[in-house]
Amino acid sequence: MEMQENVSLKSHNSFGIDVNASLWVEVTTREELIEVLKDKRVRAQPSMILGGGSNVLFTRDFDGVVIKMNILGKEVLEEDEHMVLVNVGAGENWHELVLYSLDQGWGGLENLSLIPGTVGAAPMQNIGAYGVEVRQVFDHLTAVHRETGRTEIFDNEACKFGYRESVFKNKYKDHFVITHVAFRLSKKDHELDISYGAISQVLSGKGIIQPTIQDVSDAVISIRQSKLPDPDEIGNAGSFFKNPTVDKIDFEGLKAEFSTIPGYELPGDRVKVPAGWLIEQAGWKGVIKGNIGVHKNQALVLVNYGNGQGEDLKALALEIQDSVAKKFGIILTPEVNIV
Q: Which CATH number is 83's domain given?
């Protein structure tokens, strides 16, 4: 392990924000991570774990230690004729894991295709797309306590998953570092979820009546590519805000005033409202402000067209939140971590 000073993070965050980290170190094993966490330089200043950098907005230089998670590997822990339990290093690229599972004939991750980032971030924010959340295939994870260096196992219940939430984003925020994640995937009789309208439309458009897990993945990739910009071409972190939820009675009031507002019923008399629709109706879709803006095809995505500053993107996000709150009385919550 080698600690480097004053390292640029521009190529390590999908917004492409040009900031520096005071110290930078990469870890490739759990043992290396534990050693780094014990280092006096790390313990004496702020530190952050960086995976793919696809869910973070840097607004300034990071005056501390950035620990790059590069723990790789895939290991089958259990297997029978119906399912497989595979343990995956937190530094593995998420989409590459999805493609690998498809190659093996394993089902469960197909709806989560093309989500940027690394495996370690998946349970942290309970990533989800097109009707599926990672908690549905999650079995357990291994994490190291930052202070004690102790290794702990968290099962599904212990993670307390919610909508883009887990115990690691609230109660245990900055307490643990995830090193491995285990997924329980199907080997046959896959339970496909094509309830999301766009998936059904793409499949029917291709004349596919009995889709395979590969067909579902291909459909999801097609949908995402048509809506979301490639971070390698335009700096972005995907969905910037969470889809808000409101009480059913409040939604009915909104429906009376805004007849076309979409909503998806949830347990507990709650309704999920698409944040992208709210932002678009507030007039932000396609807005450009200097080097930054809101994507022309998806209002939920804030973009850096080149040389944009993190502070400017943060200010834009606040403007959007304010306008949506004034128009609809709904407070949008960022899904992206702002540093």
A: 3.30.465.10
